[in-house]
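User: Design a sequence. Structure:
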């Protein structure tokens, strides 16, 4: 039997992981990437002696990366290494409170008890509930297709269905956290996890309280070489398996014959394939690559509310701050107002929550001597035509004022260079519709079931992977989308 050909559109982390899985299955695999580099959002760049990971900066569930090497019969440690963080993140509140989110549950719960009005027992109980949600949902909703009948005929699925009330889908995340804790600072701490998939804790289901378990049970990690080392190691593995990467090459069209895949079109050339996998945002996949087949478009899916986006300032800072760590959060004094601005007003609140990542804390050569590379991010709405230049200028002023106030240092005088990523450039560089980072939002209890499937029900040989399809955005879920998709082939 002749070797089958698979074409993958986009070299994001899900596309690379899919390529590895298909190569192991014996496919001839070629990835076409519009950019000059692999990784999609998981990329890097340098500016004036500073190196920055451009996108995702939190690394959890490293076993999903290791699994790809193991599938290929390789030792992951020969390609990729990482260290566990003792402190996941430092949190700064406007009232002067500073919390260290220790990875160790006992130390973390004691930290909460010592610095807030809540007890260690309340934290332990909440994390146990997070574990229960994970155990109910993981094998059913995260590791398998929700669009195959056999998923629902398995015994572990049936058991999970009987336990569905325990995933707390009928009330909001904020409501559940308000009931679990009495201190507003602790509620805000746990509400923040909604932003991990671009959602609003005041609307998203309490099922998202599964996310703390991923940090406090499986841990948070830092890859040696920075986040981009994930991309580099997976590209190396894929190339060793015979995967061909073709960069600076945008796919213009997915070619079909009736109800079957024929291949892809690149300018005037047709590349034939037995299967085509789109790692491009599902919205652009249909609206651009399948524009001539409107009968195939899943209208309800494409009309769903998009996730939030991000505004990122990459700052080269001429000082080292001992009170800062790899991950740092500076909370808004009014969280509800911040989310109302993002979701209802489609704007940026004057006092946004600021996430500050400094990879030079653990990778010293990411910044010059006595300096730090600051990745400064706030959550913002998806692009719907806002006056972004005006909003960015205002946000820069407000962020610098906030950081200067809480760190007691004029930050503006320490910044020696700057780059910016906003919803417009996110869409341009990564084909993420409206600049939404996680595809569709999870602001209702049925969101998990409304994400696009990993396989087309109308075109034989057409598949999907990445953050805009099941099971969702973020590195772990993108890697799982590749696993689910490959299992469907």
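Assistant: Done.
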């Amino acid at each position: 039997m002749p070797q089958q050909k698979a074409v993958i559109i986009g070299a994001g982390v899900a596309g690379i992981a899919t390529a590895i899985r298909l190569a192991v299955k014996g496919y001839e695999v070629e990835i076409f990437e519009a950019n000059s580099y692999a990784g999609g959002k998981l990329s890097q760049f340098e500016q004036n002696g500073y190196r920055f990971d451009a996108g995702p900066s939190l690394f959890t569930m490293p076993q999903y990366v290791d699994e790809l090497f193991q599938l290929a019969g390789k030792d992951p440690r020969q390609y990729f290494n990482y260290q566990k963080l003792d402190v996941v993140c430092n949190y700064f509140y406007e009232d002067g409170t500073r919390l260290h989110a220790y990875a160790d549950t006992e130390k973390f719960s004691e930290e909460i008890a010592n610095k807030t009005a809540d007890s260690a027992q309340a934290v332990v109980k909440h994390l146990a509930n997070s574990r229960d949600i994970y155990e109910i949902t993981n094998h059913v909703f995260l590791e398998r297709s929700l669009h195959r009948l056999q998923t629902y005929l398995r015994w572990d699925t049936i058991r999970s269905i009987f336990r569905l009330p325990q995933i707390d889908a009928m009330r909001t995340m904020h409501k559940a956290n308000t009931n679990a804790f009495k201190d507003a600072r602790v509620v805000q701490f746990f509400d923040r996890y909604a932003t991990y998939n671009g959602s609003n804790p005041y609307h998203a289901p309490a099922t998202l309280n599964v996310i703390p378990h991923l940090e406090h049970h499986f841990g948070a990690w830092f890859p040696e070489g920075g986040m981009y080392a994930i991309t580099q190691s997976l590209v190396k593995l894929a190339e060793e398996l015979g995967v061909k990467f073709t960069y600076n090459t945008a796919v213009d069209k997915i070619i079909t014959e009736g109800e079957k895949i024929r291949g892809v079109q690149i300018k005037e050339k047709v590349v034939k394939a037995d299967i085509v996998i789109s790692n491009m945002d599902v919205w652009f996949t249909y609206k651009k690559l399948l524009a001539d087949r409107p009968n195939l478009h899943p209208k309800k899916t494409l009309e769903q509310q998009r996730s939030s986006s991000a505004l990122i300032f990459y700052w080269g800072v001429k000082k080292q701050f001992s009170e800062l760590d790899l991950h740092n959060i500076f909370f808004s004094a009014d969280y509800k107002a911040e989310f109302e601005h993002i979701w209802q007003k489609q704007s940026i609140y004057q006092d946004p929550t600021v996430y500050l990542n400094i990879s030079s804390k653990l990778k010293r050569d990411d910044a010059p001597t006595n300096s730090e590379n600051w990745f400064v991010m706030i959550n913002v709405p998806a692009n719907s035509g806002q006056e972004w230049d005006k909003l960015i200028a205002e946000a820069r002023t407000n962020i610098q004022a906030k950081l200067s106030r809480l760190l007691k240092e004029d930050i503006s005088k320490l910044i020696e260079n700057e780059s910016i990523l906003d919803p417009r450039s996110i869409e341009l560089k990564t084909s993420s519709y409206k600049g939404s980072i996680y595809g569709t939002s999870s602001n209702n209890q049925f969101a998990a079931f409304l994400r696009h499937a990993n396989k087309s029900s109308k075109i034989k040989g057409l598949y999907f992977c990445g953050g805009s399809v099941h099971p969702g955005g973020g590195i772990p879920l993108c890697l799982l989308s590749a696993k689910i998709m490959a299992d469907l082939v």
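The mean pLDDT is 93. The longest strand covers residues 309-317.
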